[in-house]
Amino acid sequence: MLIDTHAHLNFNSYKKDADEVIRRSLDNNIWIINVGSKYETSKRAIEMAGKYPQGVFATVGLHPIHLTDGIFKVKLDEEEVSFQTKDENFDYEKYKELAKSEKIVAIGEIGLDYYYKPKTKIKLELFKEKQKEVLLHQLSLAKELNLPVIFHCRMAHKDLIDFLKENEELLPPLAAAHGFVGSTEDLKEYLNLGYYIGFNGIIFKKIEGINFEENIKNTPLERILIETDCPYLTPPQKEGRNEPLYLKYIVQKIAEIKNTSFEKIAEITTQNAKDLFNI
User: Are the beta carbons of 190 and 156 closer than 8 angstroms?
Assistant: First the structure.
């Protein structure tokens, strides 16, 4: 059994065949956590999970990339259009109501994203402050509802780690650093907080300054989560749109780096996901 701890079958890329993809996954003993990126996709994740008595779960959250309204415009490629529509203001009560669903297992994905940058320093600081403000509200929601958190962090690890330390009263006891792309030092910080580390198809890529093999070696097995982040980051063994069925390639790669068996990685990461998300 495998658990895809970060999927987006609630995105438009699967508008025509999400149920088919889910059924294919479940038939291969792969469970799925569909992660919300805004109100619309969070709601859709809950609706999708409600169709299945077992094996499909949901999260709710507002992704930081949806907070650019009034500060700057993001130019998107075709792939990103599937989830980036219009900007949104975080409505605490609306998200709280969504999060009461029995299918909800976490608040996420939430965090900081500095990949897209406004042209001026003033707008950049406004964008960063808006992200932190909304993150604070969502951490409050996670605390109120006693739910774990899925963190999204792109090119902002130091800021996120500092932010968490500065807001210790809202520090989630259980959390995942999703799709981890960071330094060994960043990794140690998350591990010291007691958090889980998610690895997906990006581990097959070459990124300057990032050593995925060392990060995997330095992450204890009992802290590793596996994910696809589908429809993105398709492993090189496949082409086109990603899906939970391709999770096996992530497991194979981690098993190779850890010098252990596929079965052991599958067993431990499945238990990790169950422990974190209480499923």
Answer: no
Q: Cβ neighbours of residue 166 under 8 Å, at least 6 residues apart?
A: none
AA letter at 153: C
Q: Return the CATH number at 155.
A: 3.20.20.140
Give the helix ranges, DSSP H, for 146-195. 157-166, 184-192
Q: Is the separation of the CB atoms in 57 and 113 below 8 Å?
A: no
Full residue range of the structural domain in which residue 175 is found: 2-277
Find out whether 136 and 170 touch, Cβ atoms under 8 Å. yes
pLDDT tens sequence across 57-90:
999 999 999 886 666 566 544 334 344 445 788 9
**pLDDT for 75:** 55
Per-residue pLDDT, 123: 86
Q: Where are the beta strands (DSSP E) in 175-254?
A: 175-177, 196-199, 224-226
Phi, psi of 79 (to 5 degrees): -65, -40
Quote the mean pLDDT of the chain: 93
In this predicted structure, what is the pLDDT of residue 119? 79
Which run of H or E residues covers position 19? helix 18-27
The answer to whether the beta carbons of residues 122 and 70 sit under 8 Å apart is no
For residue 38, what are its two tokens? Answer: 């805004």
CA nearest 167: which of 193, 147, 188?
Answer: 193
**Longest Cα pair distance anywhere in the chain, in angstroms?**
51
User: How many CB atoms are closer than 10 A to CB 140?
Assistant: 16
When divided into structural domains, the chain yields a total of: 1
Distance between CA atoms of residues 219 and 184, nearest Å: 10
